[in-house]
Amino acid sequence: MITKKTYKNIRSLKDKKIRYVQKKFTVEGVRLLQTIIDENVPIECAVYTKEFYSKHLEFIKKINDKILFEVSEKEMQDLSNAITPSGILAVTSFPFYSKLDLSKNLIYLDQISDPGNMGTILRTASWFGVDQVALSNNCIDPFNPKVIAAAMGSHFLLKFVGKEKIENLDEHLWIGASLNGKKLPKLKEFKGKWVLAMGSEAHGISEKTMERLDKIYTIPRLGKGESLNVAVAMGIFLDKLVS
């Protein structure tokens, strides 16, 4: 049976300030927890519902029963950040990120405020082997619950996710995505280290970041539509850069 203290502690992690003070957050769902287990990420505690237990007994066995607690459907709804909870939720610590490695390529996110886009960007970066993502000051919290859900465990696969000043990246070639740029070429031919800057769909790349760009490219529109989703656009750029 879960104690009031444990219950209260889990629920408090809905608050951004609490998450950053304790450096902990919650993860939900089988796929996300499986990634955490596969990466040997310590789990502080986990809660599940009776219905989830009946359907996923083998998965439940992967978690130490000393940190497992059954809760009611109502309690899970209260603890969960999802509209429709999966039935299992765990508490883990923030990943330990090393300092930005200035000898490597990275992605710079400028004014990305949508949590779904942020999470998908982290997931896509990991897929293409770019393990450093720098954020401008006005990006959404990368540990927002909706970002966590969309990233599908990518927070634990990356080497760096955090804020970084543009001035610290002067030795990189800056490449930007914009509707007003040149036609996107085969970027893999670029020599040396690069920064790929992506801006929000609503506001684009900020003026300050735009002034820093060395190359500006656009993805040609062959059909109809106002613009590409920023995460989709980044995936196309990365395919050109690293493939």
What does this structure look like?
With 243 residues, the protein is an alpha/beta fold. The chain is built from 10 helices and 10 strands. The strands form 2 sheets. It has a 6-stranded parallel β-sheet. The chain has a 4-stranded mixed β-sheet with strand order 1-4-2-3. It is elongated, with a radius of gyration of 20 Å.
CATH architecture classification of the largest domain? 3-Layer(aba) Sandwich
> H/E element string?
HHEHEHHEHEEHEHEEEHEH
Helical region count? 10
Helix content: 25-40%
Number of strands: 10
What are the segments in which pLDDT stays under 50 over at least 5 consecutive residues?
none
Broad CATH class of the largest domain: Alpha Beta
Percent strand equals 15-25%
Label the structural class: alpha/beta
Q: How far apart, in Å, are the first and last alpha carbons?
A: 51 Å
Overall geometry comes to elongated
**Number of structural units classed as domains:** 2
Oligomerization status of the protein chains = single chain
Radius of gyration: 20 Å
If you average the pLDDT, what whole number results? Answer: 92
* Biggest sheet record: 6 strands, parallel
CATH superfamily caption of the largest domain: SPOUT methyltransferase, trefoil knot domain
What is the CATH third-level topology name of the largest domain? Alpha/beta knot
Question: Reading side by side through the largest sheet, how are the strands ordered?
Answer: 7-6-5-9-8-10
